[in-house]
Amino acid sequence: MALKFIPTAEGYYNFENNKYIYNYTDHLGNIRLSYFNNGSSLEVLEENNYYPFGMKHEGYNVLVGNPAYKYGYNGKELQTESGMHDYGARFYMADIGRWGVIDAMSEKYRRWSPYTMQSIILSDLLTRMAMIHCMVKKHKWLSHE
């Protein structure tokens, strides 16, 4: 099994075609257009349009991109087996606009929620633990869980 691509901030390098593919993204991180420089002009490889909750428009713009590069809606990877977008801790089902599983840390941090007016300032992506800070009076730290 050989390496097929290397992702970068602006796109990815495709080893199969020996080309650098540029991704044009919108303000939400959705990859709208993938293109490359063929020497004399730019050639569009793939165009993506999405419904508000993330399902991809089908039936037009049938350009074929790199099948190994599965990033698109919000810049997240599409799992082709399940049809869900991988957000790290949870999977998102764009066809119904819902999360497929509950948050893995929901029981651990019940009192810290956007609905209790508490703030989670930092998040450790490796351990998926929230680092919670509370500040009062002259910017002194009161707690760190």
From TrEMBL:
Domain of life: Bacteria
Protein name: RHS repeat-associated core domain-containing protein
Natural source organism: Chryseobacterium endophyticum
Lineage, opening ranks: Bacteria, Pseudomonadati, Bacteroidota, Flavobacteriia, Flavobacteriales
